[in-house]
Amino acid sequence: ATQDSPTPFAESLIAVNRNDRTRDGEQSPVAAELGSGNGRDSLYFAQNGYNTIAFEINPIARAQTLSKFRDLGLEERLAQRGDFHDVASHPDHSLDLVHAVSSLHYFSPTQLLDILKLYSKKIKPNGKIGIALKTPQSSWPTEFHENGRRPDVTYDLSNLTALLEGEHPI
User: I need a surface site. Which of 11, 112, 116, 156 has the fewest CB within 10 A?
Assistant: First the structure.
């Protein structure tokens, strides 16, 4: 994917949700992107008929996202928020998709679990939550070390499994 094209993860999430989603009358589906960056995946969701809530803490990235939506006449499909927790005021069972690529690994396991619990209440029964986390098993730690940088790895595959299978599995 380029910086302007959607990630393959977003494309596959839309495809899976399209196959599983039941229509709620004529109401547009709603996608929440956690850590929307420059808005490329949020824009892809909007272009596929979703109203999109783009959560991004960086105001420059939010401005880039809004500009892309305006350029295509899709700004009515965009709501922007800074903090992931701003979804708390959104009604339960109102999101069709929750999408997070390379944004949730910045949180501690406790914070991540709190975020997942919050969003699991907001997702519709047939909705989808798609999360892509960086782990030590992927190639990015090696790439960081080769460039003389130290990655901040919070998760590996074993503690993610424990997190998702805990007392209140997500």
Answer: 156
pTM of the model: 0.77
Beta bridge partners of 55: 34, 81
| Cα–Cα separations (whole angstroms), residue 107 to 41, 102, 113, 115, 134 | 21, 11, 9, 9, 12
Helix axes 8-20, 40-47, angle to 10 degrees: 30
Dist. CA 59–CA 160, nearest whole Å: 30
Token pair of 95 as six digits: 């999101």
pLDDT digits (tens, 9 = 90+) for 81-111: 999 888 988 899 999 999 998 788 777 777 8
Euclidean distance between CA atoms 141 and 138, whole angstroms: 7
Residue given tokens 């995946």 in the structure block:
41
* Nearest Cα residue to 133 out of 169, 164, 96: 164
The rounded distance, in Å, linking the Cα atoms of 122 and 21 is: 15
The pLDDT value given to residue 151: 47
What does the alpha-carbon distance between residue 23 and residue 109 come to, in Å, rounded to a whole number?
A: 35
The one-letter amino acid at 20: D
